[in-house]
Amino acid sequence: MNWESYHSIEEIYNYLDFVAEANDDVASVEVYGTSSEGRPLKALKIKSPKAKQAIFIEAGIHAREWITPATATYIINQLFHENNTAVRENFDWIIVPSTNPDGYEYSRTTNRLWRKTRSGSRASKIFQETGKMARSVKQKKGRTVASYRKLFECLGVDGNRNWDFHWREGGSSIHSCSETYAGSTAFSEPETKSLSEYILKNTESGKFTAYFAIHSYSQMWLLPWGYTKNTPEDIADLKRLAKIGAEALRSVHGTNFRIGTTPGLLYIASGSSNDWAKGVAGIKYAYTLELRDKGYYGFLLPPKYILPTAEETWNAIKACANELVT
User: Fold this and answer.
1) DSSP characters for 165-219?
2) Element of type H or E holding 79
3) With a cut of 50, which residues of the chain have pLDDT below it?
4) Are 271 and 213 spatial neighbours (Cβ–Cβ below 8 Å)?
């Protein structure tokens, strides 16, 4: 694995397997579910016998945000190769580099700016290739085969609007063709449902104190809540740790992150993973990090920026971890 180019989901998964095999005393790959198109959903778990706390990192829930799986794999690399072993010894880590592998691969092969999951793609393929779906639909007045085809072309759900915490209360859409389509129900997607169950299974230990949902772009450190302009009772604690992380991030390459709630800096966004992580899973420090850049390249961040982006993000998360130990 290198951080000079973006990698396929197969390469990412092979890297997870390699790390687990090379460090089988502390690391393991866990398959926590299956995607809409049948891909395994994989996490790397790193355990320490000394750990009293744990950190969860998820990346790639939005397919086009390629910098996020790249950053997650870099974090894994640093946990095993950086001289400072304190963060590995004092924490258990669970890292999911690609929460949405179907969408990620589709963005690599077909539509670079694809955002959502790929649920419904199998039904769409049947429709397009055999016409069975078209023939099974009783056409009504004003309804053409082409219009039914359009329904099946509007595939997928916004994985970061699909979580069952204040689902579809604002900042999401009921229309399947929208990029912020929240789904027919909360946790309609196997990617989000399986991940939520996996998180709850692991948080039973009570160890998890921090959750990082890695996104791009905008250079922001987003605090709960996303579904409302109101803030949690412990907002001061959340801001304090975020400032430590943002300062550590800036110290690497001079990149500035703004700190605030999602509605305060962007917009209302209900049904998000970090809101759920705090509101349901009970993880105190639940954040969304919007990585580089501010919009010049946007989602099309060139490969030359992978390493500096990953370096500064890791330094930020490491600083937060070190602060939580003290």
Assistant:
1) SSTTSSS-BS-TTSTTB--SSTT-SHHHHHHHHHHHHHHTTS-EEEEEEEEESS-
2) helix 67-81
3) 123-124, 126-141, 143, 145, 147-148
4) no
Question: Which tokens belong to 173?
Answer: 């859409």
Q: How far apart are CA 49 and CA 28, in angstroms?
A: 14
115-130 residue pLDDT tens = 999 998 554 454 444 4
Residue with tokens 């987003």: 222
Question: Which pLDDT belongs to residue 216?
Answer: 98
Whether residue 323 lies in the annotated active site: no
pLDDT tens digits for 48-86? 999 999 999 999 999 999 999 999 999 999 999 988 778
For the chain, which domains are there? Answer: 9-107+185-325 (3.40.630.10), 121-154 (no CATH)
Q: Which pLDDT score, from 0 to 100, does residue 133 have?
A: 47
CA 149 to CA 147: how far, in whole Å? 5
Catalytic residue, chosen from 58, 65, 191, 290, is 290
Identify the helix (H) or strand (E) that includes residue 72.
helix 67-81
CB burial of residue 42 (10 Å; 0-12, 13-18, 19+) = buried
DSSP for 131-156 reads -HHHHHS---TT--HHHHHHHHHS--
